[in-house]
Design goal:
- The complex is a heterodimer.
- By secondary structure, chain A is mostly beta strands.
- Chain A has no helices and 11 strands.
- In chain A, the strands form 2 sheets. In chain A, strands 2, 4, 5, 6, 9, 10 and 11 form a 7-stranded mixed β-sheet that branches.
- Chain A is globular, with a radius of gyration of 13 Å.
- The mean pLDDT of chain A is 92.
- Chain B is built from no helices and 11 strands.
- In chain B, strands 2, 4, 5, 9, 10 and 11 form a 6-stranded mixed β-sheet that branches.
- Chain B starts with a strand and ends with a strand.
- Chains A and B meet through strand 4, strand 5 and strand 10 of A and strand 4, strand 5, strand 9 and strand 10 of B.
Chain lengths: 114, 113
């Protein structure tokens, strides 16, 4: 059972470079989320999607874009990476919203921007 | 402005004893609360949840208590085991805007053998 898979697991970027993080889920979940985790900050929501073709801003969306062209995939893009985006990124999915069912998380992507 | 607060960054207990992790919230619109557990280099995993219509929910060794008037919830682990050593995140959501789950900063629990 794959669950939620994030690609890549590690990445080092130079300031100004761009990259895309891929999240794939095989549970036919409607909801997908991107969070970032920083030391002493907990998990903060970047963007989320409540279904294929829809996206919405979370708590810290600046500097990121997302797309949900297919139900099973949720992409997080950094157009021009900055050192402040050094973080661990987690993707999650759930069948319905947080009040309905639990969210399943991927293993995380550790991104360093130098 | 933190809406979900876990004021204890760490907690250490002896194996077999009770672990109590606390969480406070400020948003009175929150009506659903969850606890997630996270091991190093892994994603968080769901542990237990509680709706605001209840004041207690139990699942094996894990019990969550909710005190709505105090805007406080706690997670009790009895008995604690070394495998419970992890970071525990409290999270909350509101029916309005329920797509968003707001997390606390986490509490690192260490259970000593």
């Amino acid at each position: 059972n794959a669950g939620v898979t994030q690609t890549p697991k590690f990445r080092v970027l130079k300031t100004g470079q761009s990259m895309t993080l891929l999240c794939a889920q095989d549970m036919n979940h409607e909801y997908m989320y991107w969070y970032r985790q920083d030391p002493g900050m907990g998990l903060r929501l970047i963007h989320y999607s409540v279904g294929e073709g829809t996206t919405a801003k979370g708590e810290v969306p600046d500097g990121y874009n997302v797309s949900r062209l297919k139900k099973q995939n949720f992409l997080l893009g950094l157009e021009s990476a900055a050192p402040s985006q050094t973080s661990v990124y987690f993707c999650a999915s759930s069948y319905s919203g947080p009040q309905g069912t639990e969210a399943f998380f991927g293993q995380g992507t550790r991104l360093t921007v130098v | 402005d933190q809406q979900v607060k876990q004021n204890s960054p760490s907690l250490s207990v002896q194996e077999g004893r009770i672990s109590i992790l606390n969480c406070d919230y400020t948003n009175s619109m929150f009506d659903y609360f969850l606890w997630y557990k996270k091991y190093p280099a892994e994603g968080p995993t769901f542990l237990i949840s509680i709706s605001s219509i209840k004041d207690k929910n139990e699942d094996g060794r894990f019990t969550v208590f909710l005190n709505k008037s105090a805007k406080h919830l706690s997670l009790h682990i009895v008995p604690s085991q070394p495998g419970d050593s992890a970071v525990y995140f409290c999270a909350a959501s509101a029916k309005s805007g329920s797509e968003k789950l707001v997390f606390g900063k986490g509490t690192k629990l260490t259970v000593n053998p």
